[in-house]
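Q: Hand in one record:
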Amino acid sequence: MLPAILESCPKLQSLILELIKDPSYKKNREPKLMFSTVPPCLVSSLKVVELIRLIPKYEGEVELVRYFLKNSPILEKLRLDTYYTKKGMRNFLKEVVALPRCSSACEVIVL
């Protein structure tokens, strides 16, 4: 679903995503992230992404971060506004730091 949104904005430079829980989802069931192609704006124009997580214990967050880091060669800033326990934050940061980046200039900010 995400690529369909991004394909309609070929010169998109900044994107803010809020991950919210859909009331129709059953408890303990996460939304599925499905990406079939990389939208052109990720390759040609997207410079800033802000991800706001409002879903407690959302495991797909790292996958979404990986997707942006892997497919955005001119990404300058990836801001992650999230919350974890101290132990959870430590594990999350270890995973994010280990992710490969397409843009060597990309700054990842975790709040």
